[in-house]
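Feature request, filed as a ticket because there's no other form

It would be nice if the structure record came with a short human-readable summary line next to the tokens. Right now we just get the raw output. Example of a typical job, pasted below so the devs can see what we mean:
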Amino acid sequence: MKTNMNRRDFTKAVALGVTAAATSPLWAADAPPARKLRIGHTGITWNVFPQNERRPDANAKLEDFVRDVASQGFDGFECFPQNLEAWDEKGQLTELIEKYKLPLTSAYFSPNVVDATKRKETLADVIKHAKIIKKYGGRFMVLAPGGGRGANYDFNAVRQNIVESFNDYGKAITDLGLGTGLHQHTNTPVDSRDEVYYVMEKVDTKVFKFAPDVGQLQKAGADAAKVVKDFLSITVHMHLKDWTGWKHYSGYCPLNQGKMDSKPILKRPDIDHDLLKANPGKVDIKAILDMVEKENPQANIMVELDPGGPLLPLETVQFSRAYLETLGYKFKAPKA
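Raw output as currently delivered:
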């Protein structure tokens, strides 16, 4: 498949995928096994981020996101707690959830884990936003490492504070009745494979689990399926996206489209480029889902795709849904 695929080509592929999934007989010899995992979607494709001067209408786009995802029969949504807070202040969040019959699954927050002097202040912020998530029925608070990763970043110098911060935040969130876990993220204090392994081998996993972004693991040079396998027993939440390294969607792509470009474009000293060449894009989505299905069928699976590509956000949802249906996942009938 060429990397210069345009929107027309993408849309044709979506239509073919949906048709194939819809017409496969349930009794076919190669019919996929029944699936238990419930699939939701995050909102960044719609530019639903914390609202600021660069994204002055981010909170308003929350409804577009929820409407599109609900229309395709997904099981839940994830955004940022700042978006929830803004709608809560207007007294309109319950109305939004009820209007589209799409429950809140989780929200994503990035607390400072580098500066020990800010931990008390940050903990209060974590608790404040966790309460918003719980108020509206959410079950999970995704924690990505905040605090910056500058040119002189030294993981070894701050790794103990990272672990202690996540333990403190995890205990507070768990005490509120929510789940939480590490969402490693590109260009944050926990990014590479070795950083992930260090943190997850040191934290208190009774209160802090693993909530990876498998596309970002692959982007960082890791074999995402191998990392998930190694931490499978504590993998309870996941951002599910594919990686190819092309010019759209920050290098990511709709599910199962990771062969668009097999040439890695990353040039960073902290990435194992030999490993990246051995895994040139394409996350093994099926293997990852098969493992989680067997070990943690109650895990939250949230499809995600960064903004900035040739498709409308709704079309990306349709594309990924069509692939998931070939694996045996069931969705409510799409709404017009």
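Something like this underneath would help us a lot:
The mean pLDDT is 87.
Residues 36-326 form a domain with the TIM Barrel fold (CATH 3.20.20.150).
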